[in-house]
Amino acid sequence: MSAFNFKKILPHLAAIAIFILCLFAYFPELLENKSLRMDDIEQHKGMSNELADYRERTGEEAVWTNTMFGGMPGYLISVVYKGNLLQYANYIMKMGLPFPADTLFILMTGMYVLLLVLSVRQPLAVIGAVVYAFSSYNLLCLEAGHTSKVAAIAYMPWVLMAVLLTLRGRFIWGAMLTALFMSLQIRAGHVQITYYLSFIVLFTGLAYFVDAIKKKTLPQFAKASVLLIIAAVLGVLTNSSSLYMSYDYGKDSIRGKSELTIKDVPESDGLDKDYALEYSYGVGESFSYMIPNVYGGASNLILGEQKEALKGVEEQYRTILPQLPQYWAETSTTGPFYIGALICFLCVLGFFLVESPIRWAFLASMLLAFMLSWGKNFEGFSVFMLENFPGYNKFRAVKMTLVITDFLIPLMAILGLNEIVKRPEVLTEKRLAFGVSFAATAGLCLIFWLMPDTFFSFDYLQEGIRGQIGSMLGQNGFDKAQSEQWISGLISNLEQVRMEIFKADAMRAFLLISAGTAALFAYSKFKFNPVILAVLVFFISVGDLFSVDKRYVNKKDFVNKTKSLVPFEPSVADEYIYTRETKNDPELGKKALAYRDEALRRKKRIKSGNNSADDNKYRFLGLMANSEYRVLNLATSTFNDAATSFFHKSVGGYSAVKLERYQEMIEFHIRKNMNSVSGMLRGGMTDSIFQAGMKNMYALNMLNTRYIIYNPDASPLVNESALGNAWFVKEVKQVANADEEIKAMDAGFDPSRTAIVDKRFADQLPAKLSTYTDDNGIRLESYAPNALRYKCTAADKSVIVFSEIYYAKGWNAYLNGTLIPHFRTNYILRGMVVPKGDHTIEFKFEPSALYTTERISLTASSILIALMLGMLFVEWKRTKKLAA
Prior knowledge:
Blueprint: H1 6-26, E1 34-36, H2 39-58, E2 64-65, E3 72-73, H3 87-93, H4 101-117, H5 122-133, H6 136-144, H7 147-154, H8 156-167, H9 171-187, H10 191-215, H11 218-237, H12 240-250, H13 273-276, H14 307-310, H15 341-353, H16 358-373, H17 379-388, H18 403-422, H19 426-429, H20 431-450, H21 452-455, H22 463-475, H23 480-526, H24 530-549, E4 558-560, H25 561-565, H26 572-584, H27 586-602, H28 613-626, E5 630-633, H29 643-647, H30 660-682, H31 687-694, H32 698-702, E6 705-709, E7 717-718, E8 726-729, E9 731-735, H33 738-743, E10 754-758, E11 777-784, E12 787-794, E13 798-805, E14 811-815, E15 818-820, E16 823-825, E17 829-834, E18 837-845, H34 848-883
Parallel strand pairs: 5-6, 9-10
Antiparallel strand pairs: 1-4, 2-3, 6-7, 8-13, 11-12, 12-18, 13-17, 14-15, 14-18, 16-17
């Protein structure tokens, strides 16, 4: 066997070194033991606190949490699906780098390998990899905490690389790599990105199909297609558990179809049109790929970051104007989709220079992505896609389709640059193409700089802000006419500021493209070493991206790792709840502290006092695991906040996929109760008035809402009417359907006495209920997120209502160890009939579909690993034979 040739891999090791240097050059804070602060990850820690702790303590998955929206499945919150053995490949590819460098490293290496497969010279592949990684959208997603999205984006180039290998004749290896990277891409947990990736793959397949017809190589194309389909199926099967459980739960979530016919929104098995198109990109905003501040960049304040633009502001507006949003489109944003001015020019030029059929696939994919991203600004096409294209109506934030262009613009740019490096004379041969590309990019930037208000409007001001300013002026003695005149002057000054901000970036883009063009012309004329050209393009493009990215993601976004691990601190209200609960029940206090101490020992940490982050986290987890109440937090955005869920079982929470029935309960009843409580608070109530009023808060009471936080710095309200974990009822009211079920809980409904049950559960109900007596009793004896045990005494056959969310796809009820049926009551809760006597009642979350699909995932991933090991063995034997 021939000796290992280290020189062959040296360039690739150098590329890896460059990638790592770039990552730490941009994120030096990672070397200081700091973590990127991410809003959505902080919310995720609140959402998943109970699930993550259960996993850490037991090594098992609870798959259900009671800390949000009364209780909900954890499939889209925090579940580790262990069946897919390929997950370990993901850890290997991260090379032990800290987050977010690890994810961006996978993205870089993927683009690098893809470009090499496309026969791009190695220095140029390095440029493409770094540029793609530092696209502003990737950085903004990381800063926002959309980690699964970026993880899915990171595997896009890997999947396309494997598909291209297969289509180009490397059938077996290409197909197996397709299965591997498709598995890892899906495992990242962002199906929307996988869905958009499929557009690129389908267009690529179509381009190669047309090429196969021209070259009369249809048999080879057919073989590649069959292998790719098999590979895709295998990649999907390795993720059977995560995909199926998400799909199955989706039917019961707000993304599924409601049973109600009395709602104001039309019936749909997907998202409502307005909701789906809420985050639409403006047509003019598409220029942000080349001019980052085309609409002001981000929804931050103008402040002092634009000192030059603020110089001409009239004196009377100097105070208020810097406090207005810099971004002037209709939707809010954290920043632009910026990929680099020079890269945009090279991309346009690439479509003229590259003669591979793949360019048409990329062009079609990019055009589709732009049209879809415009959403309500190109409504006819968007509505057509929502109504007719399979699966498209399951996703919102349509501007996310631009992950396609984010990927393909640098890819096409480097392919075009590669053509210039191979044949410097091509610039002379295709002068017209070069001129058109320059005019479409640099020329347009110059025109925008000269005549900005000809193409864009700069006077947009949100109605809410306009109203606030008008109200402020009214308080200062301005009449309506004076206010309108003052606001008109403000908008005129605001237009000028925004125009200056826009013009500065338009000229910046023009100069960058011109600098790159000069370098290309010099290379074409003097034909110097192409590495020099690569270095020039690298520094222009990467320097450009770094400077723009630092506007949005910089050192202020980093915090100490302790803060990132435990992002929330208990408020005065939280501490009051803890103190009151443990004081009323000393045994509960002992259990909470024992829970904390066991957790600290498990983590091998030394106790550092009650104020440490870990102490706070685990003593509250101990309280949650042993207490019997829920909390309603009115001091925050109740149904868009996970901080309360970090410390308590919450009536609210933070999730875009809460259960549909719970959402409807919010809309019809919980919100109504909340408004009544807020009204009492505004009325300056006494405790007796509050307690009297809470007796009528049926929705909150049946959800066992013991505490209501109205001010985090004050003691919460204590609701003495909360019904507890479970109770016996005196009567059952049967209704015909979901409409009647939710309407039956109107004024006068007393959940402590009556249970409302859909007639579909009639076969479980007794013909006659016994008279309720004080001899009946039930208490929660032990709690885990996925297992509840009650002790119960019934004087006769009786109906019990449990303050737990009903979910038939997993929750099983056991009476004295025997599986028995249970039913839905009061629209969202569980009910059960028990015979006379003393009983042990258990609820266990045992989703059979999860266990089945996990076995499928394990089998599929084992098969793929065995196939790849077999191929490696065959390859080794072949190499050994050739060497001999």
